[in-house]
């Protein structure tokens, strides 16, 4: 899972680091335009991301454009030929289309991701017990 994402008002921003420039940078994902942001610190990066989102929302409103890129519900995927063949056979066995099989697989994956969000066991959310011999 990509933890290098920022989130603000339903927008997501990818995060990268340039060692040569010593700066964090990113772009707002899922929008029609290129909306970038940067910062020398994580705090600056987050602030510039939020400002970029706010500026993008205002820009779209002024232009009368939709704020977020609308997805059409279709996309091309590239997979190994043997996986393609195995998936096609499973779809035939289930008497469903290959598209439906892929949709089911994506729905299962999304369900697992959502379950993991609800029971987040990342280190930042786990309260650690003190060692038994610790005096506290």
Could you give the topology of this structure?
Layout: E1 5-8, E2 11-18, E3 23-29, E4 36-39, H1 42-63, H2 81-94, H3 98-118
Antiparallel strand pairs: 1-2, 2-3, 3-4
Helix pairs in contact: 2-3
Give the gist of this structure.
The protein contains three helices and four strands; from the N terminus they run E-E-E-E-H-H-H.
Please provide a written account of the structure.
The protein has 136 residues and is α+β, with helices and mostly antiparallel strands. The chain folds into two domains: 5-63, no CATH class; 81-121. The chain has three helices and four strands; from the N terminus they run ββββααα. The protein has helices at residues 42-63, 81-94, 98-118; strands at residues 5-8, 11-18, 23-29, 36-39. The chain has a four-stranded antiparallel beta sheet, covered by helices on one side. The longest helix has 22 residues, at 42-63. It is elongated and about 55 Å long. It starts with a strand and ends in an 18-residue tail after the last helix.
Task: Based on the model shown, name its key terms.
alpha+beta; 2 domains; four-stranded antiparallel sheet; elongated; disordered C terminus
């Amino acid at each position: 899972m990509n933890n290098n994402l920022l989130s603000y008002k339903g927008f997501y921003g990818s995060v990268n680091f340039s060692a040569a420039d010593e700066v964090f940078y990113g772009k707002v994902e899922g929008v029609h335009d290129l909306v970038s942001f940067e910062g020398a610190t994580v705090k600056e990066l987050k602030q510039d991301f939020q400002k970029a989102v706010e500026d993008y929302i205002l820009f779209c409103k002024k232009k009368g454009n939709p704020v977020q890129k609308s997805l059409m519900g279709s996309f091309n995927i590239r997979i190994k030929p043997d996986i393609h063949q195995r998936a096609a056979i499973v779809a035939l066995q289930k008497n469903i289309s290959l598209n439906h099989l892929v949709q089911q697989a994506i729905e299962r994956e999304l369900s697992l991701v959502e379950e993991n969000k609800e029971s987040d066991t990342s280190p930042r959310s786990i309260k650690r017990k003190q060692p038994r011999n610790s005096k506290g």
